[in-house]
Amino acid sequence: MSGREEGVGPAVGRILCIMLMIAGAADLCGFFGSTGASGAFALMGGAAAAELIFGLLRKKWDLSLLRFGGKLLIIAVLLELTLFQYPSYRSVFGSGEETVLLSGAQGEEYQGRDNTPLVLTFDGVGVPVDTVWVDISFDGDYTEAVAFTADISDEACAEPRLKIIESQIIRGSSQSAYAIAQLSGKAGTVRLSFTGSDYGDLFTVRSVVLNRTVPFDVSPLRVLLILLGGMLLHGLLFSVRMGRPFSREEALCRTLCAIVTGAAVLGACAMCLSLIPEERLSDAFRRNEGDQLTQEMTLAFEEGRTYIYELEPDDPLLQMEDPYDWSARSSGNVPYSWDHVLYGGRYYSYYGVAPLLLFVPYHLATGHFFPAEIAVMLFSACGLILLALTYLAVVRRWFSEIPAGSVLAGLIVLLAACGIWFCTGRPKFYETAISSGFCCAVGGALLLIGSGAVTGEKLRPVRLAGASLLLGLAVLCRPTMAVYAACGAVWAVWGALSRKKGRLTVLLCGLLPMAAAAAFQMWYNYDRFGDVLEFGIRYSLTVNDFTHTQFHLHFVLISLYNFLIAPPAFIPDYPYITAPFSMLGVNGYYFKDYGAVSGLFFRGLTSVGILAGGRAIGGVIDRKTRIKWGVLAGLPCVIAPLVIVISTWESGYAVRYAADFSWAMLLGGTAALFALSRGRAPLRKLLLRWGMALAAVMAVLVNGIQALTFAYRSDVYPLAAERLRRLFELWL
Q1: Which DSSP string corresponds to 279-336?
Q2: DSSP letter assigned to residue 84
Q3: How do beta strands 118-122 and 131-138 pair?
Q4: Is the dihedral of CA 92, 95, 96, 98 positive or negative?
């Protein structure tokens, strides 16, 4: 074949791409707005542009990943325009003709109000029903959704079958106005019911049309997810460079890790920003009211007091025999401040004070209270970056011979399953405390590893002191973090004892900043409760009376099962992945907050590596070294997280607690798996590479869906939930 003939194919391809790009531009300008295929040409035009870019990149780098990406993009677009648009094709080729049951143009409009069903009945319809389209105007300012059901009779049943259609029409989603029906023959009676989602809802049903063609619902995001997910999996499994040791491909691996970390940070920021109630971001920074941390504790510290405010002696709450009994407060209609600490006639807060280092200066400078959503965003984003750096520091020092692809996959699992997403998904003052503690604890771990205190490297006193300070601040953010501070103290003491010179320097730098933070915390506790070890949580006014709770071993088992073991259940309906909370057959009161997610061992498969930690350390020939790393790695990665999980027996289950312990167990489990795969056994490295790649895919899938459906509850954010539903469901 001549060179001229060989060039005909690429030339035709380029011409076709240019034509599709022109059609896509026309689609974006609205030329196809009146057709049901609007958006399809824009997608094809964008894909054509991407194919040209892939072609240019392949000329410079002849990589199998680029060739695979080009092919996968074509497949993804074809799937999007065919399989994923099944409802549209079915309505086009359906047997029913378009029939108007109700027309607002003729003045036939019906108004619905509150939670009272609005029922419309149409007899003798006489046509097959493939789709039902309803035109609704949302008259109330706060009306977000209207529940829609239909009872329809057909040739197979003379009486209307109840709720043959169950749907929800969402404000802002034109696609939700279409409901697809699967009936037998011609319909007889059609009875439609519309119900507002909340009291005060107001809406008007203006039109009802049968068998209207469902327009395309093209999702470029779905195509992008398929493309990026497929390319990532291909690279992890088949890329030659990703199969080489990390030490040989460190530059490439660090770049890819930076991209993955950046994507995680952007995702966390986007989630927090989307949950800010103000319409404009600038308005959030001008709040005149805050929460328990951003306002009440901020004002208290500015005025030089540790209590939030003092109750009057005749306050009904102080007259109660047991003010901590939630049922007594409720039955007596006694006013109180939710989840505050009541002690000695004063209200306190059991939340840590370290975040006030941000909140107090901001209030003094601006006169406004710092938005909790932004605080959670900053702490979470910084924590994710520090966690990635901590992971890479561990790999670089101890596992540089591990394949680069496995290292990248391990980071994906770590960032996806670290648990911080359940804080960014509900950024309130509870999550402020947890995310700030997460950030400080991870930062302390990073500096501790790089300090050289126990690694035999040159001692870096500034890093060691910084690690000690951050671990101390972590406790001032959240008392639960004290277990990690204790682990940091063990590292410092071990490092001092293992050195012949500089012992005093290690002890001072490793313990003094932490001790200063501990001294402040003890003074703070004593000033409030007269006890240096009393943090005040048992005096909190919540749904449980902590002054009378009793320890039960079964409650510990409930915590261990639900936080660590609970397997995910995959279902074809929203929210797709669930993990039903289990009481393990225990009869008793164990608090459960909204939402339940699968256990860490399934959210992050690499955490299972801690079960083989003993064997991993047992591979070390030197007994002294085995003991050293058994203590120094086992304490922060196994013992401390388990202590945190066990301690929740009293406070109960809340998915946000996952950020307290998940990251440490994942680090330890991944390190154990890497240690077990050492050596030159090809099969062992192959299993590691495939296992880590599959773990990365599962971590993104399970944590991503569970975090999104937790953040965007269908009863609170119906439009966001609807968009998520249409992104993943193919049969709408």
Answers
A1: SSHHHHTTBS---IIIIIIHHHHHTT-SSSEE--TT-HHHHSS-TT-HHHHHHTT---
A2: G
A3: unpaired
A4: positive
Three-state SS across 35-67? CCCCCHHHHHHHHHHHHHHHHHHHHHCCCHHHH
Structure tokens at 651: 């406070």
Q: What is the pLDDT of residues 97-148, one digit of tens each?
A: 899 999 877 777 889 888 889 999 999 999 999 999 999 999 877 889 999 9
Architecture in CATH of 95-210 = Sandwich (2.60)
Give the model's confidence band at 38: pLDDT under 50 very low, under 70 low, under 90 confident, else very high: confident
DSSP 639: I
In this structure, of 343-352, 425-434, 606-615, 672-681, the range with the lowest mean pLDDT score is: 672-681
**Whole-angstrom Cα distance, residue 73 to residue 81?**
12
User: For residue 198, which amino acid is it?
Assistant: D
Dihedral pair phi/psi, residue 178, rounded to 5°: -100, 130
Whole-angstrom distance, CA of residue 20 vs CA of residue 81: 14
Q: At what angle do helices 250-274 and 372-398 cross, to 10 degrees?
A: 160
Q: Return the structure tokens found at 183.
A: 């009936």
Which residues are bridge partners to 403 per DSSP?
A: 245
> In Å, how far from its chain's centre is CA 662?
13
CA dist., res. 485 & res. 640, Å (int): 10
Helix (H, G, I), strand (E, B) or coil at 698: helix
- 565-602 burial, b at 16+ Cβ within 10 Å, e below that, comes to ebebeeeeebbbbbbebebeeeeeebeeeebbbbbbbb
Question: Residue 21 — left, alpha, or beta (φ > 0 → left; ψ -120 to 50 → alpha)?
Answer: alpha
| Tens-digit pLDDT profile for residues 497-508 | 988 888 999 999
Average pLDDT for the chain: 91
Cα separation, 338 vs 330, in Å, equals: 12
Q: Tell me: pLDDT of 2 over 50.
A: no
According to the model, what pLDDT value does residue 726 have?
Answer: 87
- DSSP string of 193-206, one letter each residue: EEEESSTT-EEEEE
Task: Return d(Cα 467, Cα 463) in angstroms, integer.
Answer: 6
With a pLDDT cut of 90, the percent of the chain lying above it is 70
Give CA angle at 631 (612, 658), nearest 5°: 65
Domain coordinates in residue numbering, the chain: 3-90, 95-210, 240-276+372-728, 284-366
Cis peptide before 568 (omega within 30 of 0): no
Count of positions (residues) in the chain? 732
Residues 6+ away with beta carbon under 8 Å from 1: none
pLDDT of residue 31: 76
CB crowding 515-550: b at 16 or more within 10 Å, else e: eebbeebeebbeebbeeeebbbebbbbeebbeeeee
- Within a 13 Å sphere around the CA of 283, how many CA atoms are in the beta-carbon half? 5
Please give the average per-residue pLDDT across 334-362, as a whole number: 95
pTM for the predicted model, two decimal places: 0.92
pLDDT band per the 50, 70, 90 thresholds, residue 66: confident
Of the CA atoms within 13 Å of residue 175, those in its CB half-sphere come to 19
- pLDDT band for 680, please (50, 70, 90 cuts): low
Q: Are 190 and 125 in contact (CB under 8 A)?
A: yes
User: Would you call 182 helix, strand, or coil by DSSP?
Assistant: coil
333 and 316 Cβ atoms separated by less than 8 Å: no
Q: Which residues lie below 8 Å from residue 259, measured CB to CB, with a gap of 6+? A: none
* Cβ(167)–Cβ(112) below 8 Å: no
- Cβ-contact 359, 294 below 8 angstroms: yes
- N-term to C-term CA, the chain: 49
Write the CA distances from 622 to 269, 422, 455, 493, 498, integer angstroms.
46, 42, 15, 21, 15
Helix (H, G, I), strand (E, B) or coil at 716: coil
**Residue range 479-496: average pLDDT?**
95
